[in-house]
Amino acid sequence: MTKPPLLAELAAWAGALDVTDAPERVVAHLRSQLLSQLAAARAGYGHPLGARITQAHGSALQDDPERAAHSLAMATICLDFDDTAYAGHLSHSCVNVPLVYARPRGLDGRRLATAILAANECAARVTAAATLGPFRGQTAGHTHLAGAVAGRLRAESALTDTWVNAFGLALTTPTWTLPHGFFTTDAKLYTAAVPVRIGLGACDGAHAGLSGPSDVLEHPQGFLHRFAALPLPEEAVAGLGSLWYTETLSYKVHPGSAYLSAAIDCAVELREELALLGFDGAGGVEGIAEVVVEGSLFTSGLDRVFQKDPAGPRSSVAALNFSVPYNVATALLTGALEPADLAPPEVGRPERWALAAKVRTAHDPALSRAALLATAPLGQALRRAGRRAAGWAAAAGPEAVDALPPPWLDPAPDFRWATKDLGARVTVRLHDGRELRAERRSAVGAAGGTDGPGHQELARRKFQRCGGKPEVVELVENLLELSARDVERLVELALGDLDGVGPSPGVRPARSTGPGGEGNAHGEPGLGVGERSQPGAGAPARSGSGLPQGPGTGREQPSARVSEALWDTARLESAYDGLFRAMTSLLDADRRLGGDAAGEDGGNREAREAEESGREIDRVLAHLALGDRLLATVARGVLDGAASLVLDNSAATDPVALDALVAAADRAVLVELVRRNAAELVGVLARTPARCWTVDVRVRLVNGAGKELFSGPVPWGEVVRLRAEEQLPGHAARLNQLNGHPS
To answer: What does residue 422 show for φ and ψ, rounded to 5 degrees?
Structure first.
């Protein structure tokens, strides 16, 4: 049987997609994404560039939805205050297009959310297929060709053929971003807006009967041939309905490149320490000898580009967004980085540039390794590429070669624990010899982060910081229950007061100057890096999709869904959350010691004990990874209704197998392998009917010496319960004990 073209398969799936097909954790991201993008719009229109955008292209609420989408995309991209996913800066098309079509198409909340979800999934997949190429992030205009087509056509409930033709038309004429204008002028504003217009025009053409090539992605003379150094066509359709790209979103609390976010967080933290030491305001700059920003290859590479033409007070907003020295200096001096810092008079303050001149950037190979092991921005693509990734890395440079994940590490089959570890370390050296240092594994709001507020809270605070009305927050929180009239009100309340959006460019929000203030250094109560987020309790038991069935107003009626209770994975997910916290502590300890947890001098007792603890930690991690792979295999058999189900743990306890895995993988890789295999297991269970709890599995348990401890039938639900309630907590406690943090 001939396999359908990639776009035909993607279009057929996305065209039938309903938001109730997605788990609640994915829907929660849709709410946060919408609110955060509305904040970015308000910040953009409130900046001096916003007035010029409106003058040239009209407002976001004009009657022509195509022009409204164009204007809105320019406003949301202009301050780099948008959110990121693996893969792409999705929201300029995936949120904006459904928003501007909501009123003319009479979309209720459920249909609006469905359109955003379909656009996200299509745009991210097309972007991922080409992410190992010349364009990533905001320069990848093709993200918005796919996002605009999918966002509009899902809002219109278009037929699959219309989707395929529109995709084909749009992706045949992709934009090619030139870095000179993008980085140095206001031309960056068009990198999303122009593809959005092309995508919407392709929809018009497809509606009128114009045809586009259905194989434009994979054809030897098609899109991926020109836009990917290493094409990954399988990314376009892998895991449809189970691999949700929407839940890889990371949320920005500062305007600017995501490659700088963690460094800015570190500078915000250090600001309070500097203030306590008396280094405050312009006078404090003289006491600072140097500021060193250590980061991954993404941060150091970005800085190398801008060292040739450093940013200054008269630089474009785009240049300021990518300037490591200016952003870090501003955060050190003010305790935040706000949209107001990208406009006069703030950008002209001489003390900022005096401190910026003392900032230098250095590459940290360990941070690069962590960055490429994480899901975003490239880790999933590199895993999908496998051994082919070596050629891409060689062309990218030695830093990429050294940081590559092992080629045998499989791509994640489930994104519920996706990560984006673009970490940084900032050291402030004073003339009197003292040093202050802050370090972060990832930025506040990054996917997989556990040491800041959750994304819902971050999005709410961001929107309110940008002058958004509390009623909009409430409407977004109840998105799936909104009527078409409610949605229209949401859009008007969020974007209808563009003449008075947020604080004026020269006014900074009030913020605490140190401990004890009512707000923290970010200018909002509790928005700082020191807060702890509450770990998710996992997905609750659900019937069918488990989500509220919306009113289904308009031309599209609610889909008929087969209702069956699915497996409740909440307790298992909670157990994994505890395990992951223990693993994160291990990696933090390794970084503090400069790498391996074992001591350098093997001749003394303390060093020998540390070395033995390190070996035991790695064995535990290897055992967990191998055990979950075995459990996931059985879980797939249960889901598929296999006649014979056997769980033999000998492969996960055999010392030879454990030592082989430990020899092949350093600790960071072992941690990522545990995370990946856990996601696979939980992902399969989440699709398994609850009635499968009673399915018998033939279980054989042996210890590390190969001695059989048990053999016999066990209900599959009991196997999973033991994993959640006994095994995982026990392993987490053991890791904490070995790491010197008894639970």
So the answer is: -95, 80
Domain count, the chain: 2
Tokens 């019937």: give the residue.
Answer: 543
CATH number at residue 671: 1.20.120.450
Q: Which domain holds residue 602?
A: 570-738
- Name the phi and psi angles at 645, rounded to 5: -125, 120
Token output for 547: 């989500």
Helices (H), 357-444: 365-373, 379-385, 389-396, 398-403
SS3 category, 26 = helix
121 occurs within a structural domain: yes
331, containing H or E segment: helix 324-334
* Token pair 């970490």 in the structure block, residue: 423
Residues linked to residue 701 through DSSP beta bridges, in sequence order: 710
Looking at residue 604, the DSSP 8-state letter turns out to be S
Residue with tokens 């509305």: 38
Give the pLDDT confidence score for residue 279 in this predicted structure.
79
Q: Tell me how far apart the alpha carbons of residues 481 and 108 are, in angstroms, rounded to a whole number.
A: 8
Residues 209, 155 contacting (CB under 8 angstroms): no
81 pLDDT band, cuts 50/70/90, is: very high
Is 295 among the domain residues?
Answer: no
| CATH code of the domain in which 27 resides | 1.10.4100.10
Tokens of 276: 């306590």
Tokens of 120: 């996200």
Q: Name the one residue in this structure whose structure tokens are 């040239």.
A: 56
Predicted local distance difference test score (pLDDT) of residue 533: 34
Q: Which two tokens stand for residue 587?
A: 């990696």
pTM: 0.90
Burial classification of residue 575, based on how many CB atoms lie within 10 Å of its CB (0-12 exposed, 13-18 middle, 19 or more buried): buried
Complete DSSP assignment for 223-292 = HHHHH-SS--GGGGTTTTTTS-GGGG-B--SSSS-TTTHHHHHHHHHHHHHHHHTT--HHHHHTTEEEEE
Q: Please report, for residues 62, 102, 361, 498, 506, the alpha-carbon distance to residue 475 in angstroms, rounded to integers and kept in the order given.
A: 22, 15, 43, 19, 30
Q: Do the Cβ atoms of 251 and 462 come closer than 8 Å?
A: yes
β-pairing, 696-702 with 708-715? antiparallel
Residue 236 placed within a domain: yes
**Any domain includes 153:** yes
Let me know how long the chain is: 743
**Domain's final residue, options 219, 249, 279:** 249
- Give the pLDDT of residue 556: 42
Bridge-partner residues for 428, per DSSP? Answer: 291, 436
Q: Which residues pair with 702 in a beta bridge?
A: 708
Angle at 321 between CA 315 and CA 323, to 5 degrees: 75
Work out whether the CA dihedral 261, 262, 264, 269 comes out positive or negative.
positive
Domain boundary among 206, 230, 249: 249
